[in-house]
Structures are given as C-alpha cells and as structure tokens.
Amino acid sequence: MHQTAALIVAAGRGTRAGGELPKQWQMLAGQPVVAHALAAFAAFRRVLVIHPDDRARANAIAGDAVIVEGGATRDASVLAGLRALQGMGVARVLIHDGARPLVSQAVIARVLAALDHHLAAAPAVAVSDALWTGENGLVTGTRDRTGLYRAQTPQGFRYDAILAAHLAHKGGAADDVEVARAAGLDVAIVEGDEDNIKLTWPADFVRAARLLKGRD
C-alpha cells in the first residue's frame, strides 16, 4: 500500500449544510466529518488539503497525514495535494471528498482493483429515478436516464497521469474525472454505494448519523 496515496480534499467553504463551520468540520458521531473520511484511508499515505483558516482544526485530527493548504477552487486544491506527493514514490492516488464520511472499504478496493488495468477509475451509482426538467415550480419535460450515473469518490488514478492532467487543465472542473477525460484518459466505472453520500444539506447529517450508528 506504500505506493498508493489518499488525497482528502477539505478546503471548501460549503455552507448549504447550515451551521457556523464548513460542513467537513461539523461534528458527526463525536468527530468532525473529515476525520471519518481520513480514517477510511488509514492504510495509505494520506494528504489532507485544507483552507488556511482550518489549520488548527486539521492539526488536531490529521495524525500522520500531511497537511497542505488548498487553492481558490477544487481543482487548484487537488493540484496542491498532488504536488505535495511528488518525489515520494507514489504510483496510484485516491482523491476523495472530505465531506464523504461513509465510504466503505469495499468501494476503495474496487477502485484500486480497476487501477490494475486502467489509468483511472471511479465509483458511481446508476440513476434509477425518473428525470424531469422544471421551471417555475412546474415539470417542463422528461429526460432519458439510460447511461446516466451519480458520481462518487474516491476517484483513483495512476499518479503521473493525473498530475500531468491537472498541470495541463485550464481549471473549472467539477471533479477529477472531468480533468482526466479532458486529458484523454479513459475512466473505468466501478460499483459505488448508496451509503457513500456527500454531506450537503442538514438532512444529510441526520442520515449519516443513522448509518454510522447502524455500523456499530
């Protein structure tokens, strides 16, 4: 596992979840959300990418993880983390949202297994609900859900390939799969997990606490 690193991205200022702190630093089952995400990757070399204002909070939970200050955008933060891994002999990197505290070892294992045969791999869940368009509170149409997926993390890459992709990218990507595809990399889809939720709204914290309690 020493050739695989985990990069936990926690530099955002997400406020839709409510509360006085960014969502990744709010408490969940007695620990900050990002502490749960960090713990999931305890078997790997870890880099925690943070906002400069959160240095004290990060120091309290980082353990042996390297702490790196991120940039103004998500892709800038990821690049800062990737640069921190240069020269460490890393062959593969798993890039994970700090606001996803419930990622399972099974999902992580599936991403790593796919990297044995692909330069990039990411978990996703196929869209099963009907899809509508809407305007002014009314349904305006439907969309075919065939071939549509909900993206999750960790998104895994051969390290050299994703570093080169980020260095070449102009910025503004939604996630690292978008960066990889812009560089011409094929990205394998692996089975995600409905419990691997990204905490965004207050109700997500209630659900996450319930799921964590169910794991005890």
Automatic annotation (TrEMBL):
CDD domains: CDP-ME_synthetase. GO terms for biological process: isopentenyl diphosphate biosynthetic process, methylerythritol 4-phosphate pathway. The record marks R16, K23 as: Transition state stabilizer. Its EC number is 2.7.7.60. The keyword Transferase applies. It catalyses: 2-C-methyl-D-erythritol 4-phosphate + CTP + H(+) = 4-CDP-2-C-methyl-D-erythritol + diphosphate. This is 2-C-methyl-D-erythritol 4-phosphate cytidylyltransferase.
